[in-house]
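User: I'm preparing a small set of examples for a lab meeting where we compare how different chains pack in three dimensions. I only have the primary sequence for this one, and I'd like the structure in C-alpha cell form so I can line it up with the others. Please keep the answer compact; I'll paste it straight into my notes.
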Amino acid sequence: MKQLDITIHNETGLHARPAKTLVNLVKQFKSDIIIWHGEKKANAKSLISVLTLGASKGSQLRIEIKGEDEETAAAEIEAAILSGLGEGEPIREPQTKPSASPAPKEILLEESKPVKANMLKGVGAAPGIAIGPVYQFQHQEIPINEMSDGLILGWESLQDALARAREQLSKLNHQMIERGLKAEAAIFDAHLGLLEDPELTETVHERIQKGQDALKAWKETIEDSAVVVAALNDPILSARADDLRDVGRRVLKIMVGAEDKADALPDKPVVVVARDLSPSDTVSFNKDFVLGFCIVNGGPTSHTAILARALGLPAIVSVDESVLKLATDSYIVINGSDGMVTFNPSPEELQAAEQERNTWLEKRRLALEQANAPAITADGHEVEVVGNAGSLADAEKALKMGAAGIGLLRTEFLFLERTTAPTEAEQYDVYRPISETMGKLPVIVRTLDVGGDKPLPYIEMQHEENPFLGIRGIRLCLSRPELFREQLRAILRAGQYGNLQIMFPMVGDIEEYRQARLMLDELELELKVPRIVAGIMIEVPSAALMADVLAKEVDFFSIGTNDLTQYTLAMDRGNSLLSARQDGLHPAVLRLIAKTIEGAHKHGKWAGICGELGSDPYAVPILIGLGIDELSVTVPSVPLVKAQVRDLKYSELQPLAQQALECSTAHEVRELVKKTLNM
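Assistant: Understood. Below is the C-alpha cell output for the 679-residue chain.
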C-alpha cells in the first residue's frame, strides 16, 4: 500500500471544481483509494464523499492507495494536487476569479439610490429592467408517500430513472453548448457527475436491500448528503447542496412519472419571485413568459445567476425574504443592473421605470438592427470592434453580431479539465473550423494562458506563494517548449484556411517575446508557411512602460485591462473586499494605456483593448480619445459598443481623454464622462 501525506494549497480548498478534477483522475485507476482529513474518511472516487471532507487551504490529507497500479496512481495524484487540481473552469464560484465571460455593463447606474418604503436592495445578477406582475414560484410536491403505499419500487426502477436522468442532463448540456453557452453547459455536466457518484448509489442500494423502496431510499440518501454538504463551513462547498437536491428531484420526478408534469409555470409574462431556483428550474421556464427573476437565496455567481445572464433575462439575488409575501399579480420592478426592487410602484415610479426600460431596450434593438454597420464616429474616425471568443459557436455568433473579427480567441479551454495535454491534431481540429468560419476576418489566437488561477494537473509545478507573480502565461509556455511547439504548429497549420494571428500572454519584457518569436519563425520554416502576425498582451506595468521599445519588434498590442488593473493597483481580482475599487478607469491604469498606445503608434503598430473595460460605456469614449484602434468585447456587447462609437465625435473625445488623465480617481473620471457627454 502507498501512502501520501499532502497539504491542500488551493485558496478555497477542495471545493467542487478541484474535487471533481481529483475524482475524475482517481477513477482512472484500479486501486482502492481512500482520503483521510483528520478523523473524516472519504472514498476518493466519490465526489460527494470528497466534498464532505471539508478540506480547506492548508488542510493536511493522508491518501491511502492499494492495488495493482498504486505506484502510478500515487505519483499522478500527488502531482495533480501540487499543481492545484486544474482550477480555472469557466463557471466561477463565489470567492474565486470573475467569469471568463462576465455580463456586459450595458447600463451604468448611480452607485446609491434612496431606498423608499416600497424598495428593497438586492444584488444585481443579470443586467436589464423587468416590470410586471409577481409570480410566486414554488415546487410542487412529489407524491412519494402515495406512490410508496402498495407499490414497492426496486433497484431496477431506480437504474432506469438514473439512465433517463442522464439522458435529460446530457441533452441540456448539448443544447447549451449548441447555443454557445459552454460555461453554462458545465453546470449540467457537473450534475451528471453527481448521478454517477458511486458512494451515493451504493448507499441507496444498501437501503433498498434492507427493505426500503427505491423512492424513499433515493430521497433520504440525497437529503442526508445535502445536509452534510450544506453544513460545511465554506459557502462554496455548502452551495453544492442545492445541486444535489436538484439532481435528486429530477430522478424522483422520473420515478413517479411526473417528469413531463412540470412545476406550475407561468402562462403570461411575469417576474418570477422565489426563495431559490435550481439550474433545472431556470432553464425550464418559457422565456416568452419570464420577464426577470427576483430570488431570495443565492449570489451573483450562483448557477441560476449564470444561466439568467446567458438567457438574457434581468435577475436580482440576495433579496430580503419579504418579497415572498408579495401578492401574486401585484406589480414589481426589478433592475438587474443595480439590484433595486420596487414593489407596488406608484404611477410615477412605474412611468419612470418604463421610460428607463424602454430607453435601454430601444438602444439594444437599434444596435442589433445596425449590427453590421461600421463603427465610425460621427466625424469619421473608425474603430475596429471585434469579439472575444472561446469556441466555434462564439465565432459564429460574433459574425451575426457584426464583429469585425475575433480579437481574443482563448485556447486554455482545450487544456483544462483533462489529465493529459491535447495533441497537435486535437488543437488543429478546433482552430481550423474557426479560421474557416471567419474567412478573411482576423482571428487573434491567444496562446496557452495558464498558471496563477489556472494550473494544469498534468504539468508538475512547484507550489508558489504568489502564483499570479510566478510561472504563468508566456513564462510557463517557454518553460515547456514541447507543449508550446505543439500549439504553435496547430495554429500555423490551421491559419492557412483563414486569417489566424498569434498573441502571447503576460509578456513582461522583450526577451520573452524574442524567444517566442524565434520558436515561431523556426516552425514556419519547418512547415513552409508564410510569416504569421504575432503580437503580445499588455497586462503588466513593465510592458506598458516599455511599449515604445517592444513596438519596434512586436506586430501589435492588445491590452488586457483586467490583469493590468490588478497589477497596477496591487489588488487581487478575486478579493471581494476590493472588488468595488477594481476599476480600469483609475487614472494610473489610463496613463499606462495611453503610454501603450503612444508606443505602438510611434512605430506604426496598432493597439487594442481585450479586457472588460472595452465594453464599459463610460470607458469607450476615453479609450477612443486616447487613440485606441480596436475594442475586443464579449460577443453580446459588440452591437452596443459599435452603436455607441457611432454616436460619438472623435474631436470631442481627445480633449476629454486628456482631462481624464489628470483626474485623481476612477470616480472622478466617470463623473467627468457623465457630465461632458450627458450620460
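A couple of notes for your slides: The first helix runs from residue 16 to 26. The domain at 144-255 is CATH 1.10.274.10 (Enzyme I; Chain A, domain 2).

User: Perfect, thanks.
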